[in-house]
Amino acid sequence: MSQAETIAPNEKPQSSEDRPIIVRGARVHNLKNIDVEIPRNRMTVVTGVSGSGKSSLAFDTIYAEGQRRYVESLSSYARQFLERMDKPDVDFMQGISPAMAIQQKTTSTNPRSTVGTTTEIYDYMRLLYARIGHTISPKSGREVQKDSTKTVIDSLFEHYEEGTKFYILFPLPRHENNDLSDELQVLKEKGFTRVLQVDQEQMIDITTEESDLSEISRDNYRVLVDRLVIKKTDDNRGRIAGSLETAFREGQGRCSVKIRNGDELPFSERFEMDGMEFNEPTPQMFSFNNPFGACDTCEGFGRVAGIDENLVIPDPELTIRDGAIAAYSGQKYSRHLRDLIKVSARYGYPIDTPYRQLSKEFKKVLWEGKDEYVGIRPFFDDIKSQSYKVHKRVFYSRYRGYSRCPDCEGYRIRKDALYVKINGRHIGEVAEMTIDAARAFFEDLELTDFEKEVAEQVLYEIRKRLKYLDEVGLSYLTLNRLAKTLSGGESQRISLANSLGSSLIGSLYVLDEPTIGLHPRDNDRLINILKSLRDIGNTVLVVEHDPEMIKAADNIIDIGPFAGVHGGELNFTGSYDELLDSQTLTGKYLSGKKRISVPDKRRKGSGNTIILEGATEHNLKSLDVEFPLGKLICVTGVSGSGKSTLVHDTLYAGIQKQLGTYKDSIGRHRSISGLHHIDSVEMVDQSPIGRSSRSNPATYTKAFDGIRDLFTNTRQSKIMGYEPGHFSFNVPGGRCETCQGEGIQTIEMQFMADIELTCEECGGKRYRKEILQVKYRGKNIHDVLEMSVSEALEFFVDEERITNKLQTLEDVGLGYLKLGQSAPTLSGGEAQRVKLAKFLSKPAGDHTLYFFDEPTTGLHFEDIAKLLDSFNELADNGHTVIIIEHNLDVIKCADHIIDIGPEGGFAGGQIVATGTPEEITQVKESHTGRYLKEVL
Question: Can you cite an annotated GO cellular component (predicted)?
């Protein structure tokens, strides 16, 4: 047995059910040789200040060991394809279950991946539609069904009385290169002697009268199989069945029944109707990730390069008569508008109704045309065909963008898959529904007993997954929402819902701040879900700062006392009540001994405002919003209410567009005014500060420029003739050329993940040996990059050029970061605070409008206090700060709140309340106001 598996001395063997997870001597990253016990089948929360070592314990020690042991249990064949996993630096671990990590990473960057495919709901929907979907003919609206001998007999006996005389017929065969006489000869050889002329109901004997059949009217002839009378006897049924089988066989799947002196009833064993042949539904037919199921035009993406609807109709609140269609507004093309008004008068179309409220049918007429009105799409096709003329090319480019695919209407799948419906809806329409609407749809399905039996298991899986997604607070997401557009918190909650759907037991779940992006209202639902995960027999380990989550835990581990080198110790382990009595930072904040105080007075602001009018993107209901300048503004509301759409997609993007620095699409709105009051705009979101491993806090904040200059000015550098470039690991000169300044070499492995090995030449130090001999106060350039920000501040205490840049990192609570820590290894919250530090170090002067997207992500109460100091510093210097936030400590310190809601998705997108925190608490409809009351 390996050291990790042995039973430690003085430990009694316990049953696996109640044996805790034991960790002894953990030293991963900054952990200081700590010993921890985690009770099995309980919910344990690991808390502590940012950078104290919570993730090092939960993910890099416990989860990493659980995963490594699982891989070791696989066959040697499977192991060779898995990445080589290093053992965590720990003396002894026992009782670890198979581990699953649910982290804050956006699940997918794949442009085909959606909420439906990620959760497997769409896969089950494909199976459901293939099994019980009804194919509806687009021509007649009737259901397409295959006929059989049984269905034809049932139809005859149901609709006609006993004694009714009829013929059983099949169409004259058609074979290539055969004329009519050849076909008749073959029929005679098969024993068929009569042909019926259908319209005259005249029987022709082909053994004697073949010359009377003309090639021209062969569609009017049928070959006679039998003449019969309806009698309710078994013999009669048997004879009809035999004749029908012959007719279907000889007619290649088609036959007909002609009632004497009555109608001809066509039947087909093929899947066809109204002259159209349909494909029988299969699961592949509904997949946009499969060449068989994907729409040929857009290849399953739902969008094609063409004309952007948002540019053609910039303001959907306008009516057609008032000029909603921008392309027709000039004198040159106004005739198209006149044609449209004529056609609308003829058919009664509502041209005085805002575009947003028009029916699907009328919008189709607008885009595709009718009568003399050509339609928007054909109009632009004509403009494009004349692109050799410069003015036509310029006009076309003004409206170019991506639009819904005209063939599949943006549903991404082949046209005939959209003919298959359940309860009147095809799979594309169901995928456009929000989670809560889809849940109601599948709960209320009206099915026959046979369909219920066939679909029972599939429906159970769909309903279960939708229920979990609804319960984790994602009811506002649509099933066709692209996975790459989800926030970190949303992705994590989808992973959580997936884990619940798989119903594993006896596992260890490790979660990384699952409450990110959740309004306090939705926290209870999330906590209940984690408890249900625990109750079915799993151990749940959560890294979290949220007070509600900490309160709900069975066991709490507090790591600290501070960050980086000053952390990594076990501060506390025990229950919530014991934590309140403890002297740890977390305990003091939770018990109220320490608190983030409400400001004595709210800022008056500069008196100027930026006004956004007519915002209608996604679920926004034509909002007009005022943003008072010179204040700290919080935009709040439940998850999915439209905060990011308003602030990120519309206001920020719209301002950038007006400043001429934005290329992407912007949220629909009428106007943004008041921009002359600001000089610049900055967005601080949770995107990485650099995708390259060469980017780090020192290079990003430009502190590294000052450090390189110091080394260049040393006596040794001057003797050797070194320039600042010699101390950069990004350019040739001083860097190690074997690893090109990376410190690691990536070995590409076939069939395996690439392996990163420390560079043998420089030992991971990034520089040539002679460069590392240059020292400043006894430290070389590599030693400096290994320092934490706090250590560097002490080391460079006299160098203002460097300390000014680094002090702001310390102020926002990032003193524990190493100067040379690779950017991709920073969390979203850390990356955001590094950006904030860069802006704080800029000299005060011009009026800047700052945007922050949930900056408290990953922050402890103590760090939030520091962050608020930074925000207040920006606002006190005359700048405006707009924050999208759920954290009540930040919201209560704002000067102005804009609360959006009241709910998420379609039930959101309205302004619920605006004003100071005190004013918001007076609004009954505001969920935020209700929770604010408790902290004010």
Answer: cytoplasm
Query: Dihedral angle at the C-alpha atoms of 219, 220, 223, 229, nearest 10 degrees?
Result: 140
Quick one: pLDDT at residue 840? Answer: 79
How far is 146 from 165, CA to CA, in rounded Å? 25
Two structure tokens written together for 596: 């983030």
Report residue 387 CA to chain centroid gap.
Answer: 37
Q: Does domain 609-688+827-935 have CATH number 3.40.50.1100?
A: no
Beta bridge partners of residue 758, listed in sequence order = 744
Q: Which residues of 738-777 are buried (b: 16+ CB within 10 A; e: fewer)?
A: ebbbbbebeeeeeeeeeeeeebeebebbbbbeebbebebe
Instruction: Quickly list DSSP for 302-333.
Output: SEEEEE-HHHHSS-TTSBTTTT--GGG-SSTT
Return the CATH fold of 3-106+488-591.
Answer: Rossmann fold (3.40.50)
**CATH pick for 303-404 out of 1.10.8.280, 3.40.50.300, 3.40.430.10, 1.20.1290.10:** 1.10.8.280
Beta-strand runs (E) in 348-462: 400-404, 420-422, 425-426
Long-range contacts of 416-419 (CB under 8 A, 24+ apart): 416/278, 416/279, 416/285, 417/129, 417/281, 417/285, 417/286, 417/293, 419/135, 419/136, 419/137, 419/138, 419/144, 419/278
Q: In degrees, to the nearest 5, what angle opens at C-alpha 822 toward C-alphas 816 and 828?
A: 70
Dist. CA 5–CA 886, nearest whole Å: 44
Interatomic CA distance for residues 496 and 480, integer angstroms = 19
| Number of residues in the chain | 936
CATH class of segment(s) 149-270: alpha beta
For the entire predicted model, the pTM comes to: 0.82
Cis (ω within 30 of 0) for the bond into 561? yes
Give the rounded percent of residues in the chain with a pLDDT score beyond 90.
67
In this prediction, residues 723-742 reach a mean pLDDT of 93
Q: Read off φ and ψ for residue 732, nearest 5 degrees.
A: -60, 150
Q: Which of 896, 935, 890 is nearest to 913 (CA)?
A: 896
Residue-wise pLDDT for 55-71, tens only, equals 999 999 999 898 888 77
Name the more confident of 664 and 916.
916
Give the HSE-up count for residue 66: Cα atoms under 13 Å, Cβ half-sphere: 23
